[in-house]
Write a structure and sequence with these properties.
globular, 5 helices, single chain, 6-stranded mixed beta sheet, alpha/beta
Length: 118
């Protein structure tokens, strides 16, 4: 899966996802630290990548960032978990999802469940 990791997730996540076989880039690797949410969404769409973010206040809003027509958006909501637990959860969820399942959808991941809106 082609993924753009937002800067609000651990810096080492993109590397971990690459080791798991994903084509993952971190926003910071692109020199785009501080990019607005709209810029992150546009960057991901221009490069045909899934947005992977911890910013549930904005990216989970389908009116602000409609997933239809995009590669998809995966939002992680795990506020009281360790970084290692967050990264392990993301890795396991992405391993279970196909590109087709994510494309054009909003996927919300929390410690217990996965929700999908398309």
């Amino acid at each position: 899966m082609r993924i753009l990791v937002d800067e609000n997730l651990p810096r080492s996540l993109a590397h971990r996802l690459r080791r798991a076989g994903h084509d993952a880039l971190d926003l910071r690797e692109l020199g785009r630290t501080g990019a607005s949410d709209a810029e992150v969404f546009a960057l991901a769409n221009a490069d045909d990548r899934v947005v992977l973010s911890g910013n549930h206040r904005h990216f989970a809003n389908v009116l602000l960032f409609p997933p239809a027509g995009s590669r998809g958006i995966v939002v992680v909501r795990m506020p009281k978990c360790t970084i290692q637990a967050v990264m392990a959860r993301i890795e396991s969820v992405l391993a279970a999802l196909s590109d087709a399942h994510v494309r054009g959808s909003l996927i919300i991941v929390d410690p217990i469940r996965i929700r999908r809106r398309s």
